[in-house]
Structure formats: structure tokens, C-alpha cells
Amino acid sequence: xxxxxxxxxxxxxxxxxLADYDxxxxxxxxxxxxxxxxxxxxxxxxxxxxxxxRHVKAGRxxxxxxxWIGRDDRIRDFTYxxxxxxxxxxxxxxxxxxxxxxxxxxSLLGRVPELYFAALGTLKNGSVFSPLFSAFGPEPxxxxxxxxxxxxxxxxxxxYRRKIEPxxxxxxxxxxxxxxxxxxxxPPDTIDLAAAMAQASDSFETVxxxxxxxxxxxxxxxxxxxPKGAVHVHEAVVAHNITGKLVLDLHAxxxxxxxxxxxxxxxxxxxxxxxxxxxxxxxxxQAEFDAERWYRILHDQKVTIWYTAPTAIRMLMxxxxxxxxxxxxxxxxxxxxxxEPLNPEAVIWGVEAFGKPFHDNWWQxxxxxxxxxxxxxxxxxxxxxxxxxxxxxAGIVEHRExxxxxEMTKPMVMGELALRPGWPSMMRAYLxxxxxxxxxxxxxxxxxxxxxxxDSDGYYWFxxxxxxxxxxxxxxxxxxxxxxxxxxxxAVAEAGVIGIPEPTAGEVVKAYVALKDGFEPSEALxxxxxxxxxxxxxxxxxxxxxxxxxxxxxxRSGKIMRRLLKARELGLPEGDISTLExxxx
Length: 585
Ligand code: 6R9
Fold this sequence. Notes:
This protein is α/β, with parallel strands linked by helices and 585 residues long. The protein folds into two domains: 21-454, Rossmann fold, CATH 3.40.50; 467-570, ANL, C-terminal domain (GMP Synthetase, Chain A, domain 3, 2-Layer Sandwich), CATH 3.30.300.30.
């Protein structure tokens, strides 16, 4: 097999939604993509209505929409009609309490059916849905719910008692807390969601939203400052729908499994909206990764399209191709990956284990949907993210603070990956952070913060992040958020947090800590700090390792030079250190 190119599969074009990339890209328009949806009377548009209700209205109510597999293998099936009924009950439970259009509803849930009712019911009610990752600790939760001005929260009693109740009073706007998995003695000021849904009607008239109404709030991390709330509007469903067709090749008879958690944007755009908008059947597994279990699900559920992430693929590789070969996975016709660089070896391993490559694709919380992809009907270049979605103009640009942006057209020149703004799922704002939002747009480009190259065939190659943001197991982690939590400990004077390369997770979080006078480095203190961070931030965000340093390298303006910490940790060249404050080493 050629290593630099896996030729388009002979069967790939037949019946594919995108059979000929170049021809399709020439004629594509977003208007055509919009016309694939039903809309609401008078130019309205609502994500939940497109995802569920429209299939019921069109007589497809009996089609299986969601198959939920519990941790204990229990299965719960929802047809489009029964899902719609549950979504309606949820929407009514909100509306009855005066929760209205524009109100922000947060979820802190594992992958349970209620998460899907909440997401879609919130949208149907015209409210804004903001999912939080259930492995977050109290601090990331509190930060996001205050920025987002949460009015209601859906969570479990256990999460509530541990992660919310201690600080709830500080969030005056948080009026309603709906609980699942709750005991007979509910905590004060909470509502039993099951009871609320049981007494609510299962019919609900979709609140009329227009394409530019705010629908989703997804938090993402920057290098400095608080997490940023990327605002997405109902029009995003145009992109969710069309990328599902063009990239994931979704057809109504597909059984689709997106392994991402809806607490991250992939799990919402592609773990809820896109497959449902396309009328497919989606699989949700409540359990965490387990190689045998995953193969069993692919086999038993006859999954046809599988969307997963490099960390998971690398874990499967560890288990070996032989495990995959024990299962008949002949229904699987497309495997896609997103979230972090997918090693060329992993793409090729796909061919060895499954008889087909993984199709890498690229996007971000800010872009709302897939922007660059190795399309099914296209040669796959292992290690490349692929080519831009029809309708998207990408470029490699050079951008220096305070100067013009220059597009670099020569092949294989490194620069910042940039996109021409204006697609439906583009973020419309960072909530209440106009300046930060504006900074992302320069010279008619949206700057992604990623460094990349483009080859002479128009394929994009990821090089790295232009900033200090960390990607661990596919999840973005802002170093500042971790540093802030460490600084809350009485022994910590300063903290610098970086990502250290690690074969499975891609990167793991490591912190460097300078202690206050009167504190001495010790193994006991290191453990205490690790525990402190884990308790506040949760296991997904907390550092895996902490090292003590007497001084952290800083710029003359006092910023910790994380890049330099990293170069030193990895024994790499220190680069430009002209702004470095002199330091005692
Ligand atoms: C969807 C999602 C976005 C950042 C992005 C980039 C990295 C995503 C990638 C990739 C290399 C790929 N990233 N896909 N890097 N190859 N195929 O992951 O959104 O959590 O906002 O992360 O992830 O650095 O800028 P988000």
C-alpha cells in the first residue's frame, strides 16, 4: 500500500452524497443547503424542529431515532415520534415555569436519555442550550454557568450535591434545578425532572425562532482569561445537516455512532443534531471507552458510520488489529475522526483492522461544524486533515500583531490556518466578550489559532497550535483555568501550565509551581496540590503531573512564558527569548 495516499475506494462514489468533490464544490451554494430544511412559517428556523419534529410530520415517526445503550447493556429505543414526545414534555416543563426564549439552560449529565430530551426540548422552547462535560469539577462549572447566566440546570442529585449546591447561592439567576436519579428527599429548591415531565403534556408547539436567534452556547478555552462562550444560532443546523451528508455521508438508513460526549461540541453538532436532521438512527453508549465493548457495539448495532477521535483510535490500536478481526464489521462503511491530529499510522491501521482508512477531518467549537475533511469520494492522505468543505474558503496566512494579514499561496508553507467567514454554523460572538471575538477576524479572515500547511493538491496538514491551549484526549484545556485553580492553594505563588506530548492522549497537562515563602517542595505537597486541582477542576482538566520550580520564566511584562517551559521540558530550542525577564536558574 502507498503510504502517502490511499486511493479513493472503488465503491466510494456509488451512492455517496458527494461523489465528485471538484464538480460539487463548483456548484455548491449555502442557499441550496438551506433549501434542504423545512423551516418554520414566515422564515423561521428551529434546530429541534428540523432534527425531530419534521420527520414525524413527514410520516417517518416510527423510524428509530435514538438507541441508548446503558452502562449495564440495557437498551432504550426512541423512535422519532417517541423522542419528539419526550422532547415536548421537557419543553413544556420549561415553559410552565416561565422559562422562555433566550433563557440559558445548562446540563451537567453523562450520556443519559434525559440529556437528549433536554438539548432538543430547550431548543424547541426557543431557549439556549449549554451542555457541560460531566467530568468537570465545581470550578469550571461555576465559571461557565456564571458567564452564561444560567437560568436552569439539569443534572443528577449526586452531581448537584457535590458540584453545585456548595456555591449555588452565588448564582442569583439560577432559578430552576431539575434533577434525575434523585432520592425521595430532594435537596431544597430542586425539581424532580421525571415528575415534572410526567405531568407535562407531550405535545408542544415549537417556539418560533428565526435563523439568527441564539441556540447553543459552547464553552471553549483560550490561552488567557476566562473560558469563552461561543454563541451559535439556529441557522447552524444548515451546516450540521449538510456536513452530515457531505462528510459523514449520512443517509436515512444509516446507523450512526458518534462517540463524543455532548459536553463537547462534537457530541452536540454530530452526536445529536446532524444525524437526527438527516433522519438516521443514532447510537448512544453511556459507558466509557472499552475496546471489546466498542467492537461489540459496532457489530451488534450494525453501525454503518462511525465518528470518533484519535485518542480512542490509538487505544484500539493498543488492543491490536486481531481484536477487531474477531468481529464481523462488514456493515461499517465509513470511519471518521476529529479533535486532534490523527497519526498517519492510525489511518493506515484502519485499513489493516477494518479494511478501510479513517477519514480525518478538522473543525473547532467556533466553526460549529466540519470545515476540512478527507471526503469519502476522495483519495485519503494519511496525516492530512483533507480539503475544505464545499462552500468554505480556507487559506494559510501570515499574521503579525499590528500588521496586515498575508495569504501564502505556495504549497507546504507554514502559517496560520484561516477561513473566510460567513457560513451558517460560524460562531456569532464570544458571549459578552466583543474584543476577544473581534480579535479573531483580521483582514477578512477568521483566524483559527492553528498552524498548518497546504499541499499542491489542496490538502491541509496540521502543524500545531499557534497558542498555548492544550488538547488532551481531544478536549481543549485552557492553561489559565488550571493555573488559577492552583493559585488558590495557600502554598502556591505562581503556576505555569503546559501540555506534554503523550502517545495516547496526545497531550497531558503538566503544571510548574513556584511556592510561597515558608513552603518547601515535598512529595506530600505535590500530592496535595494534585488532589486540590483534581477536586476543583475535575479529572478531565486537572494536571497529571506537578513540578516545583523556584522561578518560572516570565516576560518583562510579567507573563509566564509557557512556550519556554515547554521547550525546556522537552529539550527543544528555546526560540526567541528576547522578552524574557532575567531569571535565576
Ligand atoms: C471539534 C473540536 C478545536 C481544535 C482545533 C485544533 C484541534 C481538531 C483536528 C485538530 C488536528 C484535526 N483539532 N480537529 N487538530 N487535526 N483533525 O475538536 O473542537 O474542542 O474547539 O477543538 O482541536 O487545534 O483548533 P474544539
